[in-house]
Specification:
Order of helices and strands: HEHHHEHEHEHHEHEHEHHEHHHH
Bound molecules: adenine, zinc ion
Number of helices: 16
CATH architecture: Alpha-Beta Barrel
Number of domains: 1
Strand order of the largest sheet: 1-2-3-4-5-6-7-8
Largest sheet: 8 strands, parallel
Radius of gyration: 19 Å
CATH superfamily: Metal-dependent hydrolases
CATH class: Alpha Beta
Distance between the termini: 21 Å
Structural class: alpha/beta
Helix content: 40-55%
CATH topology: TIM Barrel
Length: 336
């Protein structure tokens, strides 16, 4: 399968952070505008070697954004970049705790405005998942969701949670009220789990937070019963291969993608922090193909799973399915 077919595939991304969309040139520009000092070798700030290093860097470069206009541009450029890679629809995680130079409401309005403009210009149709940080308190988390209820940003589709569970320990109970309110408001719910936490983090995300899908989730392979539960309940795992190689497994040979697929678990393929990790959804689908030997049909199936697991409206999901079927009809040999 050539990369061109994968690039033309109308792709869907469910696990991607706007915080991971800053390239070195933009960081240099923003640091200059903010009057902040850069490291001697700016290239060295990319390619973090651990999750805690990554999170600290996200704090630093997102903190260089000081005006709504800068945030609008970051969101617009991000959707344009995804569009150029053939991503038709994306749900984008934005964690306001990283963006210390802007008030939360101003940030979320600016991101929505950037996504709106990009969609009008024919780029990727990008939507917003507001994310909590695992180290926040129960009150802080509830206040975030109450504020979303009072003034929902126009592109909001769901609530997420990310951060470092190895550092915080189990926190599911702390965030249960915030996620319950999000559910009552009709928001989609997703959580990072089974990356910096083991299987118990996934169980907590399902039972304490009521999520319908899991970001990462790969460490479910440490518990056969949990794998069975995920398969039976049809919970999709939003897997990010390169991120897992860089921050968790050290090599693609150690990645359990094939075990998940063989176990009947619904998987989607995603980029996590694409610019920071120097990947695109096309390159991640090509990597998945080399791990699973699943051909173009596998990439189409993963995209179908992503549409099903998305928080898109029924009419949008149906449009995405139609585009995907048209693509499959042109590309795959007729087996009738
Ligand atoms: N925030 C950005 N990338 C992340 C990851 N891989 N895990 C947890 N939080 C994150
Ligand atoms: Zn992530």
């Amino acid at each position: 399968m050539d990369d061109d077919s994968l690039r033309r595939l109308p792709k869907v991304e469910l696990h991607v952070h706007l915080e991971g969309s800053f390239d070195v040139d933009r960081i240099v520009e923003l640091a200059d505008e903010a009057g902040e000092e850069l490291p001697a070798n700016p290239q060295s700030i990319l390619r973090p070697k651990s999750l805690s290093e990554l999170l600290a860097r996200l704090d630093w470069w997102c903190g260089l954004i000081r005006t709504p206009e800068q945030a609008v541009r970051q969101a617009y450029d991000f959707a344009a970049r995804l569009g150029a890679d053939g991503v038709a629809y994306a749900e984008v995680i934005v964690n306001p705790t990283h963006w210390r130079g802007l008030r939360r409401e101003a940030l979320l309005e600016a991101v929505s405005a950037g996504f709106d403009q990009a969609a009008r210009d024919g780029h990727c149709d990008a939507w917003l998942l507001v994310s909590l940080l695992r180290s926040q308190s129960a009150d802080e988390a509830l206040e975030v969701v109450e504020a979303l209820a009072a003034r929902p940003p126009s592109r909001l589709v769901g609530l997420s949670i990310d951060g470092n569970e190895a550092a915080t320990g189990p926190t599911g109970h702390r965030f249960a009220p915030a996620f319950a309110l999000a559910g009552a408001l009709g928001l989609g719910r997703t959580a990072h789990a089974g990356e910096s936490s083991g299987p118990e983090g996934i169980v907590s995300a399902l039972d304490d937070l009521g999520v319908s899908r899991i970001d990462h989730g790969v460490r479910c392979v440490e518990d056969r019963d949990l794998m069975g539960r995920l398969a039976t309940e049809g919970v999709a795992l939003n897997v990010c291969l390169t991120s897992n190689v860089e921050l968790l497994y050290g090599s693609i040979d150690g990645h359990p993608l094939a075990t998940l697929v063989d176990g009947g678990i619904a998987v989607t393929i995603n980029t996590d922090d694409p610019v920071t990790l120097d990947v695109t959804l096309t390159s991640e689908l090509a990597l998945a193909q080399s791990v699973c030997r699943w051909g173009l049909q596998g990439a189409i199936a993963a995209t179908e799973t992503a549409i099903r697991a998305s928080f898109a409206s029924a009419s949008k999901a149906s449009d995405l399915h139609k585009r995907l079927s048209e693509f499959a009809g042109w590309t795959l040999p007729d087996r009738t």
